[in-house]
UniProtKB/TrEMBL annotation:
Keyword Isomerase listed: yes
Organism: Paenibacillus chibensis
Keywords of this entry: Isomerase
E.C. number: 5.3.1.30
Gene Ontology molecular function terms on file: 5-deoxy-D-glucuronate isomerase activity
Keyword Chaperone appears in the UniProt entry: no
Protein name as it appears in the record: 5-deoxy-glucuronate isomerase
Stored Gene3D superfamilies: Jelly Rolls
NCBIfam families: myo_inos_iolB
EC class: isomerase
Length: 269
């Protein structure tokens, strides 16, 4: 079994956590990630410590409160595959946050080092940049939840909808060298949902020297760690694939390098 795949728990713990990645468990420095599932009426709270957070409402509605601000009744997407842009909340380090589920709720806790640079804020669907990227069987829908053009200390957060039979994160690209302006070093997690849920996605993670070269079969509700290397994704025929990406590194810049063997795909003759 690959160490790059993180499996969800059979049931939520007392704080609703069903899947968790920390820098210690991943063997890296910057990115933390959790999936929380709450029953209607359930409330959880936590302090942020030295991390900034981006809470992404994957599906369901909630009240969210920080030490200074409150947003009531947020959330519009009841099923992630409605493909509506999500509500999200940015919470800085040295703060606290409480989430109350108004419906059955699934949300992600995206975490990375915070430096106190920004205040808590609501990210509404209208604030989320939406684009269609690629062409033909490379076409996919992107929601830029927390891109580098928006304020944060470390976090970059994006979600992608890959239609059945399509590829995404393609052509294969990587961002594992602190070598700006050519490439930035960013750790990354992929959190997958698949429709219908008995399906799967495929993801390959590999380096130029093939010291890392794994082809992964990823199920609904699982996550993949990308510590380095190229990392394309495929959605098999019959199954739509969603994933939520969290990235962070020493500099908050997304500058990637395409696999030179496959870069020609972006400019076909």
């Amino acid at each position: 079994m690959s160490k790059l795949i993180v499996h969800p728990a059979a049931r939520p713990d007392e704080d609703g956590v069903v899947l968790s990645v920390t820098p210690d468990t991943a063997g890296w420095t910057y990115v933390g990630f959790q999936v929380v599932k709450l029953a209607e009426g359930q409330t959880i709270s936590r302090t942020t410590g030295n991390q900034e957070l981006c809470l992404v409402l994957i599906q369901g509605r909630a009240d969210v409160t920080t030490s200074q601000k409150q947003w009531l009744g947020i959330g519009e997407r009841m099923n992630v595959f409605e493909q509506l842009p999500p509500y999200a909340v940015y919470v800085p380090n040295d703060d606290r946050v409480e989430v109350k589920a108004l419906t059955p709720l699934e949300f992600a806790v995206c975490a990375a080092p915070g430096h106190g640079g920004y205040e808590a804020r609501l990210i509404e669907p209208r604030d989320v940049g939406t684009e269609v990227r690629g062409y033909g069987s490379l076409e996919r829908k992107i929601h830029n939840i927390l891109p580098e053009t928006e304020s944060a200390d470390s976090l970059l957060v994006v979600e992608v909808f890959t239609p059945a039979g399509h590829w995404s994160s393609y052509p294969p690209h990587k961002h594992d060298r602190d070598a700006l302006p050519d490439e930035s070093l960013l750790e990354e997690t992929y959190y997958f949902r698949v429709q219908p849920e008995q399906g799967f996605a495929m993801q390959r993670v590999y380096t130029d020297d093939r010291s890392l070269d794994e082809t992964l079969i990823v199920g609904d509700g699982q996550a993949v760690l990308v510590p380095k290397g190229y990392h394309p994704v495929s959605a098999p025929p019959g199954y739509d694939v969603y994933y939520l990406n969290v990235m962070a590194g020493p500099k908050r810049v997304w500058k990637f390098h395409n696999d030179p063997d496959h870069a020609w795909i972006m400019n076909p003759k």
